[in-house]
UniProtKB/TrEMBL annotation:
Keywords: Mitochondrion, Transferase, Transit peptide. GO terms for biological process: iron-sulfur cluster assembly. GO terms for cellular component: mitochondrial matrix. It is found in: Mitochondrion. This is CAF17 transferase. GO terms for molecular function: transferase activity. It comes from Machaerirhynchus nigripectus. The lineage of its organism: Eukaryota, Metazoa, Chordata, Craniata, Vertebrata. The keyword Mitochondrion applies.
């Protein structure tokens, strides 16, 4: 989830907008309602809104170069995960994007996924399978997604202990294949091996020649492969440049 506090909200009656994977919208609503207890909280979907990613080319952008607000934009704010992801724009369906962001061009949704896979940014239940993905292995500490100062929450002890010990052996990393893969591509969860056949990690998801995988950091710089239908498909992994320098070990 990505949380946004809408403009005009007050401390007494905050209006929080949650961006989520649409495929699990129903289960997320049930989960939130389970924990609201008797509080006067209204939880409702917003089918009249559209979400856009505003990506200013290949280099990190400056938030000051975009208008702070626009009449047709409900929300226009830097993506809270990483500067390389640009901005998030939420507007009413049918809004004129060229008026909100002059000079912009509308790309395909696959352009967005290619960009985030290239940067190693996970998103949704394919990249972050519920009950399987761990916050630190998923790099959420790099993406404004973990608090080490707030009180208890589910999984807090394991997350805090791992963080303070400083030992994280596996991380989600961007991977690239030599060429676009034949249909239907790499199955989710496919095992990634080193050249000598040692387990190196698992493929999560991707598109074309780009993807994201959970890999053992000890094997990141080695030649990697996936056995697919009797064929050996090669791939390589990289460490994203936007990561904190102390994290690159």
């Amino acid at each position: 989830l990505i949380f946004f506090r809408l403009r005009g909200s007050t401390a007494e009656e905050p209006h929080i907008l949650l961006e989520c994977d649409s495929s699990v919208l129903d289960s997320i609503q049930k989960h939130l309602k389970l924990y609201k207890i008797r509080r006067k909280v209204t939880i409702t979907p917003c089918p009249d809104l559209s979400l856009w990613a505003v990506i200013p080319g290949e280099q990190p952008g400056d938030a000051s170069s975009l208008p702070k607000s626009a009449d047709q934009a409900l929300l226009l704010t830097p993506d809270p995960r990483a500067e390389v992801m640009g901005w998030r724009l939420i507007a009413k369906k049918g809004a004129n994007l060229s008026e909100i962001i002059p000079g912009s061009q509308v790309g395909d949704v696959q352009d967005y996924h290619r960009h985030r896979y290239k940067q190693g940014i996970p998103e949704g239940v394919k990249d972050l399978p519920p009950g399987v993905a761990l916050p630190l292995e998923s790099n959420l500490a790099f993406m404004n997604g973990i608090s080490f100062t707030k009180g208890c929450y589910i999984g807090q002890e394991l997350t805090a202990r791992t963080h303070h010990m400083g030992v994280i052996r596996k991380r989600l990393l961007p991977v690239r294949f030599p060429a676009p893969l034949p249909s239907p591509g790499i199955p989710e969860g496919a095992e990634i091996l080193t050249e000598s056949g040692k387990p190196a990690g698992k493929f999560r998801a991707g598109g074309g020649e780009l993807g994201i995988a959970l890999l053992r950091l000890a094997h990141v710089n080695e030649p990697l492969c996936i056995n697919l239908g009797g064929d050996r498909v090669k791939l390589s992994a990289t460490t994203p440049e936007w990561w904190p320098k102390a994290a690159v070990k």
